[in-house]
Amino acid sequence: MEHRNHSIGYKLGTLFCWILNLSPIFHISRDKEFDSITQLTELRISIFSFPWGDKHLYFISLSKEKGFELFSVIRTSDLQSSRNQQELNECKIKFLELNDGPNGFESQLRIEFLKHKHACSQNSINTLNNKVNSYIAIALVYAGLCAFLFKSIINLPVSTISIVMWAAFALSVIFLVNVLVLLRRYLQVKAVVKSMFSSFKESPDWKKLAEGIYIDWLTSQEEQVVAATLVKNIEKYFIRSAVLSALLLLSTVLQPYNWLENKQSSSGDKTSTEFVLLDSEGNFSPQELLRLSKAISPDKKITFIYSSSNAVGKATKDFTITALKLTEQNSTIELSDHFFDTNVLIANMEEQK
Fold first, then answer.
1. Cβ neighbours of residue 138 under 8 Å, at least 6 residues apart?
2. Angstrom distances, CA of residue 37 to CA of 14, 16, 34, 176, 278
């Protein structure tokens, strides 16, 4: 029996375990919930966990039920096993042992009841099919967002924040792959045992008809449970991936300007850095000036590059030298208007030789 506790301490413990459930390292889960966690009973603690579609891999784990394990795999089929033909035959025999009144009145009542239950199962399966179709359409668009995020963070310089962003992106992609694998698993044709109504065809009566409908209801009920489990995990992984991607998208939009600094050309001096103080439209960039002020040091030299007719560039250069006290650390290169944009001013920083 599963226990429920609504105390604040229990809820905080559940929240803590739920947070660890999101992490592949020092992972906490429940086997009965297929790696999810809603309560603090029968937990599995793993050093490393890796989800893959309808299975979950655990490395160096400890659980109350199975004890210590170096490697363990949990599958959805392990939690919801379908009845085989022998078990269905046993259900059929027990059903045929039920008493029936004159003219098959009880069987007719059972038929109406089973038809209602079978219709409910089929309606649930149809609802799940519609959900899966929606997730397939969303996944195609969402894959484009992941490609955009990859392009946005691939040029980030190595730092603690960029490492965190790459880890979040990797998790998001793993969750998306799990969504795609589960969608493929859902769409696979399943071998479902159905009643052939052979006994009813040979000697039709109400009881044999009810028995055939009963078998169909049992198999459709199992199909509904399996489909619901797959859809539940599709939703779980998709929500996790979408939340991580949304946070990454937000961070790339709001990230500091210096995170967007491009990598230097491999053919140039690896110790130099360029700051575009005036762009191609002649607009002054206070962000670039701020970056330059943070990067400058006594062992650095600043070379200002602009065209000979760029009066605004010359004035901006003089202002920068005065503002940043670069009197002894600067040089100037004036180029012909034919070789350099007449609106641009670049400050190139390099080690003093």
1. 238
2. 8, 11, 9, 20, 55
